[in-house]
Amino acid sequence: MEIKIFNNEKEIGEAAGSFYVDYINANPACVLGFATGASPVPTYEYIAESYKQGKVSLKNISTFNLDEYCDLPKDHKNSYFTFMCENLFSKTDINMDNVDFLDGNADPDEESARYAEAIKAKGGIDIQLLGIGRNGHIAFNEPGEEFTDEAWKVTLTQSTIDANSIYFDDVPMPHYALTMGIGSIMRSKKIIMIATGSSKAQAVRDMIKGPVTPMCPASILQQHPDVTVYLDTAAAALL
Ligand code: GLP
Fold first, then answer.
1. pLDDT value at residue 159
2. Are strands 2-6 and 227-232 parallel, antiparallel or unpaired?
3. How many angstroms is it from 217 CA to the middle of ligand 1?
4. Which of 19, 60, 227, 230 could connect to 29 by a Cys-Cys bridge, CB 3.0–4.6 Å?
């Protein structure tokens, strides 16, 4: 793993964002795996601003997202699809026909098979962006007994519900989600992980220095050949 430490999340956004802009310019039809949550927002802002300035075009890229809540309409203000539209897609020239998302209201097994096939048909994911949960989860793969493979339906833990329920003000936060599995994430050719703030410090330490165990799902990244971790000093404090 390559570890990069920055003073603050703005610097991370500039560094990771400029990496993406250069990558897309060199590989205009690349396949990108995106993530939701606060961690990637400055990176998305950088990419959107670069588009606005004419420095990059997203019109030929294809995208997949990590996860989506169950039992929430796709266009609900708290869906991850809406999050991506608001934070990136609507601010660029991305072709929405090339945007794929897990459907949290579909049959989980059929949706998992569809997503796996769709990723394969695009030749796999070139770069998967990740955040990390306070309990070491990646996407919505919570700590558990074993590492998962393809997309599956997960029951969210109390830690995740506590962290994410602040965003839900009109409906209760869903307790289930569809998430890409650990296997789907690990098959990405390159992985970029962003973690900021002291609430992530222990999970970051367990991911990098702890044993590889499904009790810290992010620890599996130690076994991926091409991972770059972008941290602020608070998230890196226990390394
Ligand atoms: C959610 C998402 C994850 C994300 C994590 C951390 O649970 N499913 O993909 O990495 O939260 O989010 P944040 O970046 O807001 O701390």
1. 85
2. parallel
3. 13
4. 60
Please identify which residue in the block is written with the tokens 């998967």.
128
> What size, in residues, is the chain?
239
Residue nearest to atom 9 of ligand 1 (CA): 139
Q: Is the pTM of this model over 0.70?
A: yes
Residue among 38, 39, 106, 40 at smallest CA distance from 70: 106
| Per-domain residue ranges of the chain | 2-194+212-232
Q: What is the CATH number of domain 2-194+212-232?
A: 3.40.50.1360
Mean pLDDT of 187-213: 98
Orientation of helix 9-26 relative to helix 41-52, angle to 10°: 50
Site to probe by mutation for ligand 1, drawn from 9, 12, 34, 36 as the one with most ligand atoms within 8 Å of Cβ, is 36
36 touches ligand 1 (CB under 6 Å):
yes
For the chain, the C-alpha Rg in angstroms (whole number) is: 17
How confident is residue 91, by pLDDT bands cut at 50, 70 and 90?
Answer: very high
Query: Residue 85 has what pLDDT?
Result: 98
62-65, strands of its sheet edge to edge: 2-6, 227-232, 190-195, 127-130, 31-34, 62-65, 99-100
Mean pLDDT within 177-192: 98
Contact between residue 43 and residue 19 where contact means Cβ atoms under 8 Å apart: no
Check pLDDT > 90 for residue 86: yes
Task: Using alpha carbons, select from 227, 223, 12 the residue that is nearest to residue 127.
Answer: 227
- Is there a contact between 29 and 23 (Cβ–Cβ < 8 Å)? no
